[in-house]
Amino acid sequence: MLKIENLSVAVNGREILHDINLHIRPGEVHVLFGPNGIGKSTLMSAIMGFERYEITKGKIYFKGQDITNAPVFERAKLGIGIMIQRPPTIRGLSLRQMEGICGATPEETEHMAEWMGLNKFLDRSVNEGFSGGEIKRSELLQLMAQKPELLLLDEPESGVDVENIALVGRAANYILNSATAACGKVCDRPCCPHNFKDVQVNPLGKSNRSGLIITHLGHILKYVPADTGHIVFDGTLACSGDPEEMLSCIGQSGYEHCIHQGCRRWKK
Predict the structure, then answer these.
(1) Does residue 59 have a pLDDT over 90?
(2) Could you report the per-residue pLDDT of 115-169, keeping only the tens digit for each?
(3) 255 has a pLDDT exceeding 70
(4) Bridge partners (DSSP) listed for residue 126
(5) Which whole number is the average pLDDT over 176-186?
(6) What would the DSSP string read from start to end of 113-148?
(7) What are phi and psi of 42, to 5 degrees?
(8) Cα 57 to Cα 5: distance, rounded to the nearest angstrom
(9) Percent of the chain scored above 70 by pLDDT?
(10) Is the Cβ–Cβ distance between 229 and 263 less than 8 Å?
(11) Does domain 82-222 have CATH number 3.40.50.300?
(12) pTM for the structure as a whole
């Protein structure tokens, strides 16, 4: 699905990441841990192709295609979707209109918004006056319409209360998985309205969609099981292994101790 080879990334002329190698196979979810300001968001932004992030070395492949120099819109069309930490307010464009741009039908938009608790926000400008939790839900609503094959989530728990974390987690899980609809049909669209007959239930079946998630607290992992964890440190992927064990070690001993003492045990 996603393959990164010897990637180095600079911002404003300063190298932030160097020699990153990462392979996410179809159906896998990987999680990135690491201190603030260490380069996790830089890696995610480089994958999405944001202009500020200059790739100075290496390659990014998605579904076997070299996208290293592809613009953002081409990557989105290929099936990469992202939820960033601080999305902009888009005045004059309603959330309902944005859902249509992302590919949802009017019926799908209504059903998805009801499930996400955003049906009263559909005719408001995107993110204008939204709380932190509402912005997260708005971003996920747009991703549900886009139905990306690779989902990038940058700190989905930040600025979100306990109740909204559960909804954010279930929505992210929903995007990552195809579902058998209540009507008995298999829907390849995570926003299929048949799947919203009971908004308290999220019927999932494993799919080939993949994910990359940045988290500090790990709450999202209660709802989106991860296959592999990575610690980003000093601009590299310093350690990889079991995400639950890794998170526990970080909480008890800190990043450096886990890198120096734990990587031998976790190495695959």
Answers:
(1) yes
(2) 888 999 999 999 999 988 888 889 999 999 999 999 999 988 887 777 778 888 8
(3) yes
(4) 90
(5) 52
(6) HHHTT-GGGTTSEETTT--HHHHHHHHHHHHHHH--
(7) -60, -40
(8) 9
(9) 86
(10) no
(11) yes
(12) 0.84
Q: What number of other Cβ atoms are within 10 A of residue 100's Cβ? A: 14
CB-based contact 76:146 (threshold 8 Å): yes
Structure tokens at 35: 């201190």
For the beta carbon of residue 65, count every other beta carbon within 10 angstroms.
12
Residue 97 neighbours by CB distance under 10 Å: 16
**Rounded to whole angstroms, how far apart are CA atoms 243 and 146?**
28
Report which residue type is found at 161.
Answer: D
Q: For 1-78+227-267, CATH number?
A: 3.40.50.300
Which residues have a Cβ under 8 Å from the Cβ of 223 and sit 6 or more positions away? 166, 168, 169, 170, 172, 173
Residue 262 near residue 249 (C-beta atoms within 8 A): yes
Domain with CATH 3.40.50.300 in the chain: 1-78+227-267, 82-222
